[in-house]
């Protein structure tokens, strides 16, 4: 099977796209053409894929990237058995003649609007209606897979859920340490950057450092640079997912201090599972799914939103109790290995794409038009 995968929004090394889905397709013996912003993100494509470079869609400046994507998808999908796109924007750039087309719904698009600081207020008011219309029309024209079961409420069909699980090592990882806490993932105000910088201040007198591993929104980069410049924390910027998780191993705890915003409320933060997979106690805000798994498994500590003092005390209690750290890390690892190991889900993902590829493609209706 030949599959064309496309994104203009996500980083080419996006964990879900590159390290889970594309890797699963390659391991199953399929050919992959990958349309992605390699040059913009300074990424060298792996040799086992056919890469088509496009500009990246950033902020309000998406027209050039969308225009380039039309030609790139037409080229990439020409001989493909299946086209898999990862951005709602690409629904407007689909080739008129194309194979079976699948849209991977990564997020609650309406719920995420509040976290996009670049959007003017008038756009925040208008976009929910536009997005709802696009989603309804897309459901009639392409296949869907969903990153969360909760996304099913937005659609009428019973679509396949491909959860954001992770690769869990076959052998238990090293024990948690006692002198650093880590955060792995994108950095923004809504993901708790301000709280983490304040936490770094609180932990410094105790000899505990903070490692932040991930790209950052433009609005928070200055404060991160300032904090790093004075030695308050270490910010490593974007690091490919597999390397980032190796860097996290051996930390005292993994942080997930996301705010209570609609886009996070119905999702399980992948970082929580990734920390568990690496044997780290989790410190998380009480988002329903994160709090449920951490509380049920007793693999970490749940703290109130915005309460840096509570996070500080949780870190110090873990630092002073190595047995508790080790027990929490072991429980999290066992839970992740038993229920959130990506290869256990990859088989269903690949099998469904194979099934769709041999069927007659959905009608090649012209590009999606907003309601």
Automatic annotation (TrEMBL):
UniProt entry tagged with the keyword Transferase: yes
The keyword Transferase belongs to this UniProt entry's keyword annotation: yes
Gene3D superfamilies tied to this protein: Glycogen Phosphorylase B (3.40.50.2000)
This protein's UniProt keywords: Transferase
SUPFAM superfamilies: UDP-Glycosyltransferase/glycogen phosphorylase (SSF53756)
Recorded superkingdom: Bacteria
Positions of the Glycosyl transferase family domain: 177-333
Protein name: Glycosyl transferase family 1 domain-containing protein
Organism: Sphaerisporangium flaviroseum
């Amino acid at each position: 099977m030949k599959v064309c995968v496309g994104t203009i929004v996500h980083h080419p090394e996006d964990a879900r796209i590159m390290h889970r889905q594309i890797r699963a397709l390659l391991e199953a013996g399929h050919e992959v053409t990958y349309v992605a912003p390699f040059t913009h993100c300074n990424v060298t494509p792996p040799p086992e894929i056919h890469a088509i470079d496009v500009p990246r869609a950033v902020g309000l400046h998406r027209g050039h990237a969308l225009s380039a994507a039309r030609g790139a998808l037409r080229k990439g999908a020409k001989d493909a058995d299946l086209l898999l796109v990862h951005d709602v924007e690409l629904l407007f750039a689909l080739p008129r003649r194309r194979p079976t087309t699948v849209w991977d719904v990564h997020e609650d698009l309406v719920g995420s609007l509040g976290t996009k600081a670049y959007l003017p207020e008038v756009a925040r008011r208008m976009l929910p209606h536009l997005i709802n219309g696009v989603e309804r029309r897309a459901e009639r024209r392409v296949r869907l897979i969903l990153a969360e079961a909760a996304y099913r409420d937005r659609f009428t069909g019973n679509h396949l859920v491909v959860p954001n699980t992770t690769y869990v090592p076959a052998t238990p990882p090293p024990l948690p340490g006692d002198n650093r806490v880590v955060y792995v993932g994108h950095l923004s105000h809504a993901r708790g950057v301000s709280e983490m910088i304040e936490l770094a201040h609180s932990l410094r007198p105790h000899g505990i450092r903070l490692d932040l591993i991930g790209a950052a929104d433009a609005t928070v980069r200055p404060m991160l640079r300032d904090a790093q410049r004075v030695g308050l924390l270490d910010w490593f910027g974007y690091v490919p997912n597999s390397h980032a998780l190796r860097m996290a191993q051996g930390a005292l705890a993994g942080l997930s201090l996301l705010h209570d915003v609609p886009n996070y409320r119905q999702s399980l933060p992948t970082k929580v599972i990734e920390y568990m997979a690496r044997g780290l106690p989790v410190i998380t805000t009480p988002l329903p799914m994160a709090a449920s798994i951490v509380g049920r498994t007793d693999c970490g500590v749940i703290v109130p939103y915005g309460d840096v003092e509570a996070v500080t005390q949780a870190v110090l209690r873990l630092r002073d109790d190595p047995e508790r750290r080790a027990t929490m890390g072991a429980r999290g690892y066992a839970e992740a290995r038993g229920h959130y190991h990506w290869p256990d889900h990859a088989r269903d993902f690949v099998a469904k794409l194979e099934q769709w590829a041999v069927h007659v493609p959905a009608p090649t209706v012209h590009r999606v038009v907003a309601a």
